[in-house]
Amino acid sequence: MPVKLKKNMNYPKKINIRTEGGSYPILIGNNILKNFNKNYLQFCSKSKKILFITNTKIPNRYFYSIKKTLPKKSECFIINIPSGEKNKNLLEVNKILNFLTIHNFDRNDTVAALGGGVVGDTAGFAASIFKRGINFIQVPTTLLSQVDSSVGGKTGVNNTYGKNLIGTFYHPKFVLIDIAVLGSLPKREMVSGFAEILKYSLIMNKKFFLWLCKEGANIINRSSTLSILKAIEISCKSKSIIVGKDEKEKGLRAILNFGHTLGHALESHLKYSNKLNHGEAVIIGMMAASTISHKKNFLKNQELQAIKDLYQRLGLNDSFKRYVQNNQLNNFFKIMKKDKKNNSKNINLILLKRIGKAFIYKTTLEKTLMPFVKNELKNA
Q1: Do 286 and 238 meet the contact criterion of CB atoms below 8 Å apart?
Q2: What is the pTM of this model?
Q3: What would the pLDDT profile of 19-60 be if each residue is shown by its tens digit?
Q4: Closest alpha carbon to 109 in 66, 154, 48
């Protein structure tokens, strides 16, 4: 059920995520890092030690803004892990686990992720397996992580064969989303986050899509605080509805992978280099999935054109032709076959019946994606 767009939205605001595996709040606002301690004391009341996982790209002032609010009796530590998707791996997880062991953390203590998706996924996975689970808190600092990876309880790391192939479902005690931290991001990161916001509108909320057609530039350019807050709130509510019905991706939750089958393959193919970040890969993947939806006679031409117009207006147009060569296709298809969303020989491709309505299209790589990719390269 799509989230309604309300004219009057007061912030800060709390959204409650409810799943079979647990419930927790998402707190959304502007300049609310100061509220960290209040929630820490409420949801991690027995915690005596807290380890912040971050990276050197995150301004130190965010950590110190939180640290000064903590009780003096709390032992506070910080670890920097390297930035970039290629560093979301078991080596970094092991560093965190060793630190927790050396400093005698117990199951009542806490790991807090202060950073983007790589930090959150890595820290969350470490928290979920250390002593079979200790407290975990998300403080996402990128638009992408605020609307996607920090919400829903998925944690995980990559390996040689693909993205997020090693992971757990593990919910944080709370998520603190402060849009003030977005001020330090380059525009490229705002575009990356907008990709996931756009995804929610395409898969479940046409009114949200039409609103994004008007407000998308204001979000990407950070020219409207209210538009950013509203977009984050609607995105988090949209994901909470899906996760609440299907926590462990047995069915409905799979629609959140719209644009991700091709997107993840591109990231892996490029070895998680800076040539293409996650949101940019998803932007390419969503256009491909929309085009396939139209070619399969699901999505009407008028709606495909509306998506193309939005891409054009916001400067989102890109193509995997830039990243995959004909002589690399065999390796590219091998990567796609190893995607964790696949089942045996079949793939669960997420397509659109219309803007605001996604569905799972069971097919094979050979029937759908391989011909599409080959045709795109042929027309390059």
Answers
A1: no
A2: 0.93
A3: 887 899 999 999 999 999 999 999 999 999 999 999 988 999
A4: 48
